[in-house]
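Handout, section 4.2: multi-component inputs.
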Amino acid sequence: MENFPLHVGHVRQLQAAINRVHTLIHFTLLLALLYYRASVLLFDSSKSNLATPVPMLAWALISASELQLSFLWLLRQAYRWRPVSRTVFSGRLPPDDKLPAIDVFICIADPKKEPTVEVMDTVVSAMSLEYPPEKLTVYLSDDAGSPLTLYAIREASSFARSWLPFCSKHGIETRFPGAYFSASAHEKESLLLRSKEFIEEREAIKVIQNEVSDAVGQEQANKMPLLVYVSREKRQNYHHNFKAGALNVLLRVSGIISNAPCILVLDCDMYCNDPTSAKQAMCFYLDPRSSKRLAFVQFPQIFHNISNNDIYDSQLRSIFTTRWRGADGLQGPILSGTGFYIRREALYGTSRQKTDNDLLQLRKCFGPPNLFIASLKQNYKRNFVNGDASVESPQEAQLLASCSYERNTEWGEKASSATVSLNDNMVQNIRWGCGLLEVGLSRFCPLIYGSSRMSILQSMCYAFLAFRSLYSLPILCYATIPQLCLFNGISLYPKVSSPWFAIFAIVYVSILSQHLSEVLFEAGSLRMWWNELRIWMIKSVTAYFFACLDVLMKLIGLKKANFIVTSKVVDEAQVERYKMGVFSFEGDPFFLVILVTLVTLNMVSFTAGLGRMISTNKYDDIFGHVFLSFFILRISYPIIEGMILRRDNGRVPVSVTLISVAISMVILSLGCILLMY
Ligand SMILES: O=c1ccn([C@@H]2O[C@H](COP(=O)(O)OP(=O)(O)O[C@H]3O[C@H](CO)[C@@H](O)[C@H](O)[C@H]3O)[C@@H](O)[C@H]2O)c(=O)[nH]1
Ligand SMILES: [Mn+2]
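Output:
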């Protein structure tokens, strides 16, 4: 049996072939389009096939935008080159006593934004993983150091004493109590098929969930995974490095408690929806054919609060179904920050092996404590007495969690619920966009630093993520410059009768159908495609734009690093609207002003352009522009509705509309200056 593969992966040949052919055709068309733009700009503007003289500045800007969009498009093709699917056979795993131990790291930062009950659900779901309990240790890092969290974790631990046996006895798959007891999950577990005994026990458990009792037998504790609460020291003068800092502390503290060779990292709201995930991950680590250098196994994020009409694309479909699968076919998916199993060894890195015998070097890398240095060489050994973690030296654990620990060591240099409101979505995307762009502009730029260390296709995947915020500049241009031209009766697109027009048309259709086919291939719908397109446009002109500004301000020293935690508190009204597919335009007015200004600009120029087309009866010259504005307005319809038709609290505030209208009037009147050059 031992020689059987524990997992198989196969390339989706047909999909890969279609993708590659499409990439080639689209690439050729893009070259033609860029040639047209450049030749008019550089050589001969009379060849433009335009009805009016070429406004050079506007032409240059729109050409630069198209170049930038083409660059990002090219990077993205790496994800489509070699998509794979994988299957695991956890039944073929060696017996429990041969499995490696796992330490689970969960981070929490702010009990106001991250409801404690949800965090405890995550803790309990991690404890209920289908894995030998004596090989599982769950660590909770509490960055807020909140007494409430400490209290709650005790309660969660005693709840787990009843919950774990209940789950394994009845084969419950949804081991996240919050989701299990919610109505929807309820319906899924078809009660009709269950015995009376099950229903009685379930009711009993429900009571325990509400009112945790300590009466459950102590002997259960020994069959439970160990649960450790860590609150690290934070001081003003020491940079605590947010979540990365918290994970580093857990890495050190766990080193002297359980020191498991494998680590599962979870965000505080990322419960394990599949209790077999730990064994599935082991299928990759323990397969004799797997590379010894396999560092981590990334699971996709699945969200339990997604509505049918997911207007904000909160499920991040493109990331976890299209992109990660594509990167997996190259050299492995990208670490997403949560939901991954990583080898401890991979985190300690090469510095440990190189300097294995040199204590001084080890101390330089990892800090002075002897116990911790010793743990680097030790294998898994859990210090576990009578249900309590017996840390050999509590002082040492405290030292490992102190804020000054990393000073004078190489730490930090070497070891490095779906949002359902527009505002939260924006906050999250600014943070991602800003952090990733900073990497892109640092010496770790994937295209330079990466290309000597990984395949060019893999570097392109990382580069796309790093530079994604740069969508903001071309999309902002696309939403303003053709409109200003249209308003002034000037064209930036070839006449409809010119063959060049066909190139533009085919490029647009090709790019949209590439996206559409991706969505449909993953069992998505037309509506999902439309929603994704819309939220991408919204993000580009807002979140990505702010991310670029953030990076700029950090570069010139006007802003410090920060981490605005994504709120997990639900606003009932917003959730209701999200479920009905209605946008909530509450929150930061800056976002809204940009969106509403752009929409107003498009409304005005569309009307002016349409009027001109009808009055002059000439459709050939400006059709491209009129169509672009129409398309933008059509996809922005929810914003127009929010400005004009809606009366509820989630509408666009009237003040925002007024300011935006004023700004767009200013832009329109300044537009002729742009067109003079
Ligand atoms: O100073 C901090 C800040 C955050 N966190 C924790 O980090 C996690 C992620 O924060 P969250 O606000 O939930 O970020 P999201 O945008 O929802 O998460 C995504 O984006 C993060 C990076 O921006 C990644 O770290 C996450 O894994 C990824 O799921 C949460 O458990 C936080 O409690 C800390 O422990 N300390
Ligand atoms: Mn989160």
